[in-house]
Amino acid sequence: MVDSSLIQSRALLARQQLLQQQQHKRLARRIHDDISQKMTLLSLQLSLALSDSKSQANWTQNCTQWSALVLDLGQNLRNILNELQPRILDEFGFVAALQWYVHSGPKGIHCKLLLPEAPVSLPPIAANELFAICRDIVGEVFGPHGITEAILAVEQADDLVHLHLRTSQQNPALTPLISQALDALSIHERLFCLDGSLQTHQDPAQGLAISISVPASRQAASQAA
C-alpha cells in the first residue's frame, strides 16, 4: 500500500508544476505582447527609414518616436523582471518589497499598507512566497472581481507573521468567487509548503478579509523569547 503522505506529496508537486506552467505561459504572453511585437515594429520603422529618401526630413520626429518606443520596451522589461523577482525583495526584505508594491499602484487598485513598529522577520523562502501570494491575490483575485481599494496589514505575534488583506467590499456572494480564485492560484498548497494557513472572512459591516499566517524565522523567535 502506498503511503498516503507520499500520495499527498506527489499531488502537491504536480499542482506546483501546473502552477509554474501557468505562470510561464502568462509571462510568455506578456513577452510576446509587450516586447516582441514592439521590437518588430521598431525594426520595421528603422528599415523603412533607411530605405525612404524622405525620412531625413522627418528625422527628428522619427527619432523621438523611436526613443519613446525604446523607453516603453525598457519599462515593460522591468515590469516583467519585477514580476519574476523584485530586486528590492532580495536586498531589503519583505516589508520593503510590500512598500514598493503598494506605491507602484498595482493594476489600478489603491492599496494602503499598515506595518507594525517592530521589525518583521521571515526566512527568505517564506518572504519570497508570501510576497508572491500577496501580489497574486491583489492582481489576480481582487482586480478581476471589481475590488479597487484594499488594506494590507502586517503583524508578527506568537512566532507567526500575519498578512491581512482587507477590502470594504460588502458582498456575501463574493466570498465563494474569491475562494475559487484562491484555489485556482493554488494558494493553500503554496502555504502548506511553508507550514502556513489562510482564512477568508466576510463581515457584513467591514467587508472581506483574507488572513495569511506563516512561521517567523526561528532566529527572530528565539530572540523574542
Tell me what you see in this structure:
There is one protein chain. This protein is of the alpha+beta class. It has 2 domains: 4-84; 92-224, Histidine kinase-like ATPase, C-terminal domain (Heat Shock Protein 90). Helix content is 59%, strand content 17%. It has a 5-stranded mixed β-sheet. A hairpin with a 2-residue loop joins strand 2 and strand 3. Helix 1 (4-51) runs antiparallel to helix 2 (59-84) and helix 4 runs parallel beside helix 5.
Uncertain runs: 220-225
Instruction: Indicate the radius of gyration in whole angstroms.
Output: 22 Å
Number of domains: 2
Spell out the CATH superfamily of the largest domain: Histidine kinase-like ATPase, C-terminal domain
User: Can you tell me the CATH class of the largest domain?
Assistant: Alpha Beta
Distance between the termini: 44 Å
* Count of helix runs: 8
Looking across the biggest beta sheet, what order are the strands in?
A: 1-2-3-5-4
Main sheet: strands, sense, barrel? 5 strands, mixed
**Helix proportion:** 55-70%
Arithmetic mean pLDDT: 79
CATH fold group of the largest domain: Heat Shock Protein 90
The ordered H/E elements are HHHHEHEEHHEEH
Short description:
By secondary structure, the chain is of the alpha+beta class.
Question: What labels describe this entry?
Answer:
single chain; 225 residues; alpha+beta; Heat Shock Protein 90; 2 domains; five-stranded mixed beta sheet; elongated; disordered C terminus
Secondary structure blueprint with pairings:
Layout: H1 4-51, H2 59-84, H3 87-92, H4 94-103, E1 110-114, H5 124-142, E2 149-157, E3 160-167, H6 174-184, H7 187-192, E4 197-203, E5 207-215, H8 218-224
Parallel strand pairs: 1-2
Antiparallel strand pairs: 2-3, 3-5, 4-5
Helix pairs in contact: 1-2, 4-5
